[in-house]
């Protein structure tokens, strides 16, 4: 477990296309949208930082770049699909702290300003960094809902920024050992049905916190360039049985097994006041990887 120390100075890189920022990417996208349409837009996003993005396919031997903005609806039989049953009466997903390592510019580093942050595979760093987060593979599937009307409706075109610690409990861009990395951080745009997804790894359990992932919801991809524009900040909780399985047998999670034994949802600083809307539905195994599914009503 690292000290979560702050680096005195962030590394610098020569200015290349990927260093011009997300705002630069979006400017290019807006100029192309009218003539290219939706399919062209996805193609262009697929090329943003393609030479720099190296994704680890769920921690397997195969590495591949991935910058698509949405994986679409979960396949039949996977929880969290169109019949997930979100109702206005269920309420919005709780507002939570972003924690000390948001990487959104509100507390130091700002990954949202970087070109290449719009991607589905967040296992690898991008831009001038080349690190890869190792661990048990996880696919996170989320559906964003708008509760403003009389009925809950998919919030098409919204954007979601997801981030979490690595299997050693370290946060990229902050902890000394990985301050020059930006892995396990990425932004996705919800499709017409409100769906989006990420490929990542199972996070560690570090002192004082239940295993979790952070996320921020934004009205649109264009507005996901500043933390001031966010609609909601919340956290995803991972079920106990899944955590016990991973920390008990998976390589690299030895320290998490001991830490997990001393935490609980009832005493966690974030989830102790209720977690029913934040607890992910999980399928899968250590060998095959996991799928986390969560509805996000805002």
Task: Give a verbal description of the structure.
The chain is globular. The protein has helices at residues 22-47, 240-249, 254-260; strands spanning 55-56, 63-64, 137-146, 153-154, 159-163, 185-189, 195-201, 212-218, 232-237, 281-285, 289-297. With 298 residues, it is α+β, with helices and mostly antiparallel strands. Helix 2 runs antiparallel to helix 3 (254-260). The chain is built from three helices and eleven strands. The protein has a single domain (17-71, 91-297), classed as Aromatic compound dioxygenase (Protocatechuate 3,4-Dioxygenase, subunit A), CATH 2.60.130.10.
Reconstruct the topology from this structure:
Blueprint: H1 22-47, E1 55-56, E2 63-64, E3 137-146, E4 153-154, E5 159-163, E6 185-189, E7 195-201, E8 212-218, E9 232-237, H2 240-249, H3 254-260, E10 281-285, E11 289-297
Parallel strand pairs: 3-11
Antiparallel strand pairs: 1-2, 3-4, 3-7, 5-6, 5-8, 8-9, 10-11
Helix pairs in contact: 2-3
> Termini separation (Å)?
34 Å
**Proportion of strand residues:** 15-25%
CATH class: Mainly Beta
* Average pLDDT figure: 80
How would you name the CATH homologous superfamily?
Answer: Aromatic compound dioxygenase
So, CATH architecture? Sandwich
CATH third-tier fold name = Protocatechuate 3,4-Dioxygenase, subunit A
The secondary structure category is: alpha+beta
* Low-confidence region ranges: 1-20, 27-83
For the sheet with most strands, the description reads: 5 strands, mixed
Radius of gyration: 18 Å
SSE topology string? HEEEEEEEEEHHEE
Q: How many beta-strand runs?
A: 11
Shape: globular
The helix tally amounts to 3
Number of domains: 1
